[in-house]
Amino acid sequence: AVSTLVCEPTKQLLLPMAALNSQEKSSEKKGSAQKADLSKSETVKSYSFADYTFEPDCNSALEKVVPMYLRAIVSQMLFESKTSEFGSRLRAMTNATENADKLASELTLKYYRVRQNNITTEIIEISSGAEALNS
Question: 42 φ, ψ to 5°?
Fold first, then answer.
């Protein structure tokens, strides 16, 4: 589960590359069971293929593919890290904005209460002075 509040570093094995993980293996088993059902219900034609030579050889292909694989995996890790950082910053700024708005409304309320008390005090002083002059 992804959470902006909890950040747990993970460790990922890049080399040697794993052939298949358990989920892929289980999906392959399900797929082979479906193929078996297909072969029972329908006639499946088998084709013979010509013997092709693949170039470049395996070592040359690996020399090209492995660096591309590592670049892609490391790039993905960096993108995820930056995305996580930006998500955390966004959440922090949202919290700061909400706290600032709350503080501003509390201070405004305090200001109006003090202002009202000052006005009330002045009105009482004026009416007391007027009463003193009339008596």
Answer: -130, 155
